[in-house]
Amino acid sequence: MRVAVFSARRYDEVFLGKANRAAKHQLTFFESPLTPHTQGLLAGFEAACVFVNDVIDAKVLRHAAAQGVRLVVLRAAGFNNVDLEAARDAGVHVARAPTYSPHAVAEHALALMLTLNRKTHRAYNRVREGNFALDGLMGFDLHGKTAGVVGAGAIGGVMARLLKGFGCHVLASDPVPDAALARAGVEFVAFDDLLAKADLISLHCPLTAGTRRLIDTSAITRMTRGVMLINTSRGAVIDTRAVIRALKAGVIGSLGIDVYEEEEGLFFDDRSDQVIADDVFARLLTFPNVLVTGHQGFFTAEALTAIAEATIGNVTAFERNGHALHEVPHRRS
User: Are the CB atoms for 232 and 105 separated by under 8 Å?
Assistant: First the structure.
């Protein structure tokens, strides 16, 4: 199949190229994202391969279908950036990479947690300047703390087990409690109970209508004062302005995020010579107790290999029988 790969970086070309050696699909890589402004690039392709910040709305899908595109395949597990009802109406199938590496994202969430706690990023810079003072670097033992995991699917389940390994009392909130996690000592509780009891909260839920702004002013008021909040799921799961107010008031003691609600047009590119125009994001960077990474939780060799193999597998299956391996069901009206 002729596949247009959008938001492509050098590593996408490398890993997708390796996965495609046997299948021999015709891959064309575009560094630009897929948006209504770039949809003209779809001409001549049968499939569009997209990433988390590409815009696959009704306009793009109608244009894609008119150009002969029959498949949109995501190099990610989440699909909140795709208008599924519009895809159904346009006759375009949508597929994803559902379980590329839960370990990659969970381990990155843990890295944010450990870095914020022990302030190793600040210590690194101090030592390079010859400053070996310990003032301001005090952390706490994770052992014995109560950690809350919101969303106990594949990634959240790995995170819960990692936290158990550190000796935390782990609470989890999920619509469908996992029996294996419960047997491993994870306590499933209501979301409000988790907020009230957790010293550390890590978010691992998909972005849906029910989880958008899940962490808002109301939720924050129910948290333990000084709580550490980690988000590696989707940026819009938290209300960033409400979190900033809570950081200023000391209600949230520290924040680690790998995702941001307005990251489109910001993440994945070198902007070191530019002024950041997003005032909310710029405000986050002023806090000494906030750690931001640019959506790199998925970025391990193992995860990129799995994403590429799932992507090519979806395209190959669709070419052979008209259905991808990991299709996303179209929403009903």
Answer: yes
46 is known as an active-site residue: no
pLDDT of residue 333: 38
Domains and CATH numbers, the chain: 2-100+301-321 (3.40.50.720), 102-292 (3.40.50.720)
pLDDT confidence bin for 19, thresholds 50/70/90:
very high
- What pLDDT score does 287 carry? 97
How far is the C-alpha of 14 from the C-alpha of 234, rounded, in Å?
26
Confidence of residue 331 (pLDDT cuts 50, 70, 90): low
Among candidate residues 46, 108, 169, 263, the one labeled active-site is 263
Is position 234 annotated as part of the catalytic site?
A: yes
- Residue 96, C-beta contacts closer than 8 angstroms, at least 6 positions apart: 73, 74, 76, 77, 78, 79, 310, 314, 326, 328
Decide if pLDDT at 332 tops 70: no
Name the active-site residue from 70, 234, 261, 326.
Answer: 234
pLDDT at 171 over 70: yes
Which of 295, 319, 326, 327 is the catalytic position? 295
Would residue 13 show up in a list of annotated catalytic residues for this protein?
no
